[in-house]
Design a protein that fits this description.
This protein has a single domain, classed as 3-Layer(aba) Sandwich (Rossmann fold). The chain has 9 helices and 5 strands. The chain has a 5-stranded parallel beta sheet with strand order 2-3-1-4-5, with helices on both faces. α2 packs across α3 and α4 packs parallel to α5. It holds the Pfam family AAA_17.
Length: 185
């Protein structure tokens, strides 16, 4: 089984991924795939370079470029595990790539929704090199994500979790969701 976790930047995807990992489920991060490709191209890991490589990959390999690069990582993990989580799928083309590459696997999409103002504050506090420091940067990044088609993936989710609450409550919601998914599938 493949569990795709999607949501806008700063929505809380990593909490879900970490909860699966605590239960022994390995993961592949689509963002890490892009960052690895950025480094392979000899570029410094800045938000500008990562964004450019993300766009360039899609120009070179199609809208499902990052998924194509991630398929082998997922395949390797599925050889040893019954369940693999993919973090950060951004388009239905990418979902389709995984469906085509793994026709015998059940694929479940989990989406996280968090209000924009909460995501902005979390991203500023997170401090990763590609996180926005101004509202304008934040909005620009959101528009890029939406242009990739992330909204369509969110709309097709099998499970939706809302992260509009204190951290402890969200963690409880995540634990319940992960337990439910693993029990039902």
């Amino acid at each position: 089984m493949i569990i795709i976790v999607t949501g806008m930047p700063g929505s809380g995807k990593s909490k879900i991924v970490k909860e699966f990992e605590k239960r022994g489920v390995p993961s592949v991060s689509m963002g890490d795939v892009v960052r690895e490709e950025t480094a392979k191209r000899g570029l410094e890991l800045t938000k500008e370079n990562v964004a450019k490589v993300s766009i360039r990959l899609r120009q070179e390999l199609g809208q499902n470029a990052v998924a194509k690069l991630a398929v082998e990582k997922v395949r390797e993990l599925l050889r040893k595990n019954k369940v693999v989580v993919i973090d950060g799928v951004r388009s239905l083309d990418e979902v389709g790539t995984f469906r085509s590459a793994f026709p015998g696997e059940e694929i479940i999409i989990v989406a996280v929704h968090t209000p924009p103002h909460m995501r902005f504050e979390r991203l500023k506090a997170r401090g990763r090199h590609d996180d926005p420091q101004s509202w304008e940067d934040f909005e620009e990044r959101d528009w890029k994500e939406l242009k990739f088609g992330i909204g369509n993936v969110i709309a097709m989710a099998d499970y939706m979790i809302v992260n509009d609450c204190p951290k402890e409550e969200y963690e409880r919601r995540v634990q319940e969701l992960v337990e439910k998914i693993l029990a039902e599938h």
